[in-house]
Amino acid sequence: MAVRAHVCFAALALLLLGFARPVPCVRLAELFEFGRSAGDEQLRRGSDQSRQLELETPLLFYHGTFRSVHVSYPINTNGFVAVSQPPEESEYLGNTPAGFGMIAVLMGDLDTSDGVGSVYFRQDRRPATLQRAAEHINRAFPEDEEVELSHAVVVTWRYTTNYPFLPCLLEGLQFLSTSVGGGTVPMQAGFNQGPVKYTFWSTQPGNYYQITSDNEQSVKDLAEQTNSGKRGVWVFEIGTAPYFSSITAGEVTAFSPDTKAEDDPPSPARHAVSPGGHREVQHPRYDTQPHEAHKAIPLDLSVCSSTLQPTARDPVILCYALYTVFSYNFETCANNRQKCSTFADCRDYPSGYCCHCRPGFYGNGKQCVAEGKPQRMNGKVNGRVYVGNSPSPVELRNNDLHSYVVANDGRAYVAISTIPISLGPSLLPLSSLGGVIGWAFALEQPSFENGFSITGGEFTRQAEVTFLPGNEKLTIRQNFQGIDEHEHLVVNTELEGRVPQIPRAATVQIDPYSEIYQYSNNLITSSSTREYTINHDDGSSETRTFQWRQTITFQGCPHDESSRTALSPQQLSVDQVFVMYDDGNQLIRYAMSNKIGSVNGGEPRDNPCFTGQHRCDTNAVCRPGHGNQFTCECTGGFTGDGYTCYDLDECRETPHVCDRNAICSNYPGTYRCQCIDGFQFASDGHTCVEVDQPVDHCQRGTHNCDIPERARCIYTGGSSYTCSCLSGFQGDGRACRERQKTRCEHHRESVLGAEPRGPRPPLGQYVPECDEAGNYKPVQCHASIRKCWCVDRNGVEIPGTRTEWGTVPMCIDPNTEPRPVGPTPRPDVHPLPPGTHLLFAQSGKIEHVPLDGYNMKKNEAKAVLYLPDKVVIGVAYDCVDKVIFWTDITSPSISKASLHGGEPTTVISSDLESPEGIAIDHLGRTMFWTDSMQDRIEVASLDGRQRRVLINTGLVNPRAIIADPIRGYLYWTDWNRDAPKIETSYMDGSNRRVLVKDDLGLPNGLTLDPQTSLLCWADAGTLRVECMNPSVSNRKKVLEGIQYPFGITAYGSNLYYTDWQRKAVIMTDSSTKKETDEFLPSKRSRLYGITIAYAQCPSGYNYCAVNNGGCTHLCLATPSGRSCLCPDDAVGLGCVERGTGY
Predict the structure, then answer these.
(1) Thyroglobulin type-1 domain location, by residue (predicted)?
(2) What's the pLDDT score for residue 172?
């Protein structure tokens, strides 16, 4: 059920009178009403007046939410609205970007102290105002859902043009420059985020989006161009909630018919979204991904003119409006309760829902664990670490990390395996590799919270370590992914940099230390200087130090006002630190005790529950009492006196804990319910409901085909079947009638005659062949003369087609319509309808099946592209430009076609032999493909240029390929019959490794769910569909005993795959591991590649998404940044290659 949600829009209109020639555009009557008659308040006149306007609905601007705007007189006369109190105008005029957040309508040094100008403002809910604003927004963003406005704030500037700071009258717009410091500079329009908090100890300039440039022509062009379909009207998205990506311009640069005059200049190109060619400066920011559920805040800037000649009283009017609208994707507890932890309650808030752990549990609501329960953590460690002055790094590839935490005393144990002796001793000082785990489950002092209580174990941590005195630097990146199905926390760690060398025989001692953790909205920081002592085998020792800075980012629930309040600083106290390297087992171990409490330091409270000096069982929680008194209470899932706890077998003690159609399995401290075969969990996650079982209606006789004497029932799998009339009958199979004999059949009978023993032809007589419909077959042969030839629809031989026996002539079936040439229907005649679709390839065409939620709307399926005489293998979809890409093995070639319209275009046609799989990076604007004859994987820009071979070794039959641009990985299959495998690498081809090599047969299809990172494949050798998480390798079977799968794609919990034998698209629920539907195209032939055409691009971001990552040519994402690579033919192109990082 869709729920209305609170989102904001902003719009801006500018009317300037004083053009020398008529140009139709926005007129005064079309602007928002202003003045006392419109209900406006008026700002007090003067040269430096201000007024803070408290908003009924918050303004969303960049990452911020503002409940007031400053309608100050520098804003009014100087043409901008601020989100904080602006400084003196001398500090910002001519200095862009300014040091505060602002929306610059048209900023300059303007003065209205003579009383001529006025500034009006109001909050408005009138339908006429809201409708006018919605028209601008909907026209500028035609691909989006139409908005429904509920609230507006309108600010209007009105002043005249007879002031000395307007130095010249040009042919067009005269309001171009402003005086600054005795000179003049062009007026400015744009958006400035203002300073943002980078870490606790520093800020940096936020993003700045400049609409106009540094020349007056760009200001003048505001009246001549558009990005909203109406001359002089400019619309921009400037903020979202809860996440923000970037400023986005309106999408329509051509003028609508009602605004275009005969003397209009040529429409600017679609990408020319601002008159000066907008310039956006973006500084490094935290990982905030765009959320498809929210509409952004567009800003509407309108510039107009009239035929009046300028006079002393020609008015200049600027109008700004803020809108509150409703979107339809926010969700409530009613249909999202399953997203909360089993041990949490869901609560609705005005803008959405939040999950809250129940008493006795702690976490962020989506992840909750029992108080006092020991915790286990698993993960992998990757990276490259240089030791001492070594020129070669030590490579870490999927080294296992295991951790165990005794939660009731804050003791954490961490072990990392397969660390070579060349590196192990030098990692001993880095106890903080495990220290973050200690922080997550630190023993909490009264009124303080550890890391898991705040983040739920879902956060990203980056630490920078600088060793002194050598200034070696090491970066630690860790991604904590919450709790997996085994109730273990999952963490992935990457190490990059250099550490000072520690001798093999030395040991390291680390004294107790403390760290101050600073908290802000979704951001935690800490820094410290630490000491460690190296004890050498000769009895000597030395003390060294390193500087430590770390940043932890997480996503709290944005809808609970109280959760957005930043915590006070807290101190993590760490003691009993133990570090050891076991060179025999190549294992490094860390152990430490952790407490979180007041920054004022001092010893913890005397109560043993806060010092950890109790005698409670490791599966018990310590409950403090008065003074030093305490009690031990076994945590959930255990029973006993608290000092000794035993596992509670819930399945035996409470027989009805699971549904009667479920199996209960006991585990230490918990239990699990699993529905029996034929049942699945209902939406409450507890009740098991019966799954519709496949029924063979043909065998049961429950079909609706005609009687067996006239039709037959054909079972097609699942509960589906088709009806077909028998030979001699015609109809749809459900109603068949006897067919009249055709000319061919009469001809055949006349030759055969009627003999007592059945029809027998006279010796040497030619007998025509008829098809099932009774028509002449296009190829006729006569065995006696050993010749074959083509015939027309009347059975008459076509001259010049006769061939010798054994050679079949190429005949065109006269009973079918000739194949059209080109895309019929053309994409521009029948574009893809709105919504999400399946796209799949069939010989000679690409079809689509619309999706209603996750279900196939089979009755609305149709071909979107006809490609006669082509064999399309792979299909991919660019969600940004709405373009289909496909590989063709007959040409061979890679081609594309826009779903907005236009003919197919060949992108690459040279140096290909058998292109098969294809994948699109919609963020970095590149495509990847496999060639099974050349045994290589290549990349190119989407126009086919900048082509480069990424991998050309160790491949035999590469087929499917998938790109994960958000995380920076490639995945592909190789169906080498001697050694099939599934591999992965970074998107630049580096860090290649085998993911799966055992128990594979013919891995044809491959897909990745961008939301869950679940990698699934369809294997035509093992006849299975299987899935795994590439980071934890938890391989599981989804389907077994299927027939012959080829392509596969994922959407939500559903998998859709094509099958060669069934000649169908089959839908499967991966959670229940059951087929749920199938689609049978009208043309029954082999189906090949399949993909999802998203209505909106999946949310996410990588370093290549902005300014091509700063690369000159190819920008290829990696998990930690990007690589700048050159095409293979880069000679003379001025290309610069740079390695991973940013």
Answers:
(1) 741-811
(2) 35
Give pTM, 2 decimals. 0.40
For residue 133 the two structure tokens come to: 């604003």
C-alpha to C-alpha distance for 569 and 592, rounded to whole angstroms: 22
The token pair that represents 603 in the structure block? 């010893």
Distance CA 1003, CA 779 (A): 39
**The pair of three-digit structure tokens given for residue 1105, joined into one six-digit string:** 């998404």
Joined tokens for residue 25: 């555009």
Distance CA 1103, CA 1081 (A): 41
Distances (CA, A) of 1013 to 748, 913, 930: 62, 32, 22
User: Would you state the pLDDT for residue 597?
Assistant: 86
Among 558-572, 684-698, 1035-1049, the range scoring the smallest mean pLDDT is 558-572
The gap from C-alpha 793 to its chain's centroid, in whole angstroms, comes to: 55
- pLDDT confidence bin for 1034, thresholds 50/70/90: confident
Residues 6 or more apart whose Cβ sits within 8 Å of residue 819: 844, 866, 868, 869
How does DSSP assign 1002-1036, residue by residue? Answer: -EEEEEE-TTT--EEEEETTTTEEEEE-TTTT--E
Number of alpha carbons in the 13 Å side-chain half-sphere of residue 393: 12
For residues 641 and 632, the answer to whether their CB atoms sit within 8 Å is yes
Question: CB under 8 Å to 581, separation ≥6 — which residues?
Answer: 419, 424, 425, 427, 428, 587, 588, 589
- Longest CA–CA separation in the chain, Å: 119
- Please classify residue 1105 by burial: count the beta carbons closer than 10 Å to its beta carbon, then call 0-12 exposed, 13-18 middle and 19+ buried: buried
Tokens linked to 210: 């400049």
Q: What are the structure tokens assigned to 630, written together? A: 């305490």
| Measured distance between the N- and C-terminal CA atoms of the chain, rounded to whole angstroms | 42
Tokens encoding 741 = 């004999």
Neighbouring-strand partners of residue 848: 839, 862
The C-alpha angle with vertex 70 and arms to 65 and 74, in degrees rounded to 5, equals 140
Query: At residue 1045, what are phi and psi to the nearest 5 degrees?
Result: -75, 150
State the alpha helices, DSSP H only, in 1055-1122: none
Query: How many Cβ atoms are within 10 Å of 835's Cβ, its own excluded?
Result: 12
For residue 234, how many other CB atoms are within 10 A of its CB? 29
**Whether 413 contacts 565, CB under 8 Å:** no
Alpha carbon distance 232, 24 (integer Å): 10
Cα 115 to Cα 47, 118, 643, 807, 911, distances in angstroms: 10, 7, 82, 98, 74
pLDDT tens column, 411-433: 889 999 999 999 999 999 988 88
Give residue for tokens 């479920």.
662
In the structure encoding, which two tokens stand for residue 709, read together? Answer: 């004497």
Starting at the earlier edge strand, list the strands of the sheet with 41-42: 3-16, 315-330, 148-160, 118-124, 41-42
d(CA 946, CA 908): 11
Which pair of structure tokens corresponds to residue 236? 């921009």
Beta partners for residue 509, in sequence order: 533
More confidently predicted of 816 and 675: 675
- Paired sense of beta strands 315-330 and 3-16, if any: antiparallel
Above pLDDT 70, what percent of the chain? 78
965 contacts 1100 by C-beta, under 8 angstroms: yes
CA angle 919, 924, 926 (to 5 degrees): 40
| Close Cβ partners of 348 (under 8 Å, ≥ 6 residues apart) | 332, 333
Q: Look at residue 885 in the predicted model and tell me its pLDDT.
A: 95
Return the pLDDT at 167: 29
Residues 6+ apart with CB under 8 A from 443: 408, 409, 410, 450, 593, 594, 595, 596, 610, 612
- pLDDT top residue among 196 and 905: 905
Q: Give the tens place of pLDDT for each residue, 76-95.
A: 456 778 877 777 777 777 77
Residues recorded for the chain: 1142
Q: Say how many C-beta atoms besides its own lie within 10 A of residue 918's C-beta.
A: 22
Here the tokens at position 611 are: 């010092």
CA atoms of 111 and 266, how far apart (whole Å): 37
